[in-house]
Each structure stands twice: as structure tokens, then as C-alpha cells.
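pinging the channel bc i need a second pair of eyes. not urgent but kinda urgent?? the chain im working w is below, pasted from the shared doc
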Amino acid sequence: MTPIRPSRSGLALAHIRALLDANLEQPEWRLPSERDLVEKTGAGRRAVRVALEVLEAEGRLWRHQGRGTFAGQRPDIRPHLVATIADRTSPLEVMEARLEIEPGLARLAAAKASPEVLSSMRLILRRLGASEDHDSIERWDGAFHRLIAETAGNRLLLTIFDIIDHIRSSPSWQRPRALARNTDRLKTTQMQHAAIVDAIGQHDGAEAERTMRHHLLTLQSNLQQVLLGRRATAPEPSLSPES
């Protein structure tokens, strides 16, 4: 029987895997150029590119246009990006960004939400309603909005949401959000959250988008009153930071 010979892309894949394994101790080790890999493997440019695509999908390497190919996972740019943006923006700009992103996420979530996801949303709202301290309310409120973003199923929009969420969760920004809340406003928020979940549960994208927008506009108005010196009657919020 004639032995089965590995394909050219298989040969290239095995060769590059061996290179990666030999350099495990070197973080962000730079691989040889495509041309060098073609010469060393004899597999052809197309086979090398296929092998690189496979290894990139596996998370074993990442490519930077103009700089080359590197071992390991692509560095997470969000911490640096978030810090840079946070220094140049304001709470009201964050609310404007949320108004552009989150209603659309709610609409997408309405088309994709499973019964299990809806049960999780309702459980989070029960936890939120039972919370009595700022940290717990902030945590469960964030979990609610994040679950909607994840349910939308769009990785790019989720990344944008994640950046906005990191900025608004900054400790230095929590006080104005806290001042924008009191017991009555928290009850309003809970009713608005429930309306959002009802719309998502009915798979009514237009209504989910509308109720999310209404919710965020309410929060924006509360925050504007605080930042412009027109605070509501309570001198301190009794329960929640701005959701």
C-alpha cells in the first residue's frame, strides 16, 4: 500500500507548530516572514498562508499589518484604550454613546433571545430589586445590560459596549451617577428594565429598541440635572448609582 503523504498545507502547519513550540518561552516571539517560511517548508505560499490562518484561528499567533506575525494571543488594547478615552470624555458623552449603541443591541437581542436567556434576565432583575447597597445594585445593573449586549450576538458591537461599560464603571465616575439616583428613580428604572425584558421576550425588536431608548433618555435626564446643579429633592441617593 502506498503511504499517504501529508498535504503541503499540512507540512507547513507541522513546521510552524514546531517553531512555535520551540519558542514557547519567548512572549510575542516574531515568526519568520512568509517568504522565509515558504523557503524552509517548500510548501508554497498558499499552503503557508492556510497554515497561518489555522494557527491564528487557534489563538497560537496573531498578525500585525506591516510589522509581522507574532506568537501568542493578540494583546488586549482595551485597558490602554479605555484609560485614554476616559481622560478625554465626560459622563454625558458616555450617555450619548449608550443611546447610539444599546437600543440597537436590545433590538438584536429580541431576535435571538432564548427562553434560558430570558430566565437569566428576569433572575438578574430580581437580584437587582433585592439589592440594598450601591455596589450590589451597580453589579446587577451592569450584568443586566451586558447580558442584553451578549445576547445581541454581534462581537464588534459587544466590544464597543465593553469599552463604554469600562469607562462608565470607573470609580471616579460613580459619584455623579450615584447622585442621579434616589428611591423613586430606582423604582422607575426597575419598571423600565421589566418593560425591556418583556419586549425582548415577545421578540419585538422595535419595542425593545424603543423601551431601551426611553430608559437611557431617563437616565440621561437625571444625570444632566446633577451635572448642571439641578438636583432632585433628596440630597443623597438612597440606593442606586445610575444604571
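so Confidence is low (pLDDT under 50) at residues 1-6, 231-243. and Residues 205-227 form the longest helix (23 residues). — does that match what u expected or am i reading it wrong
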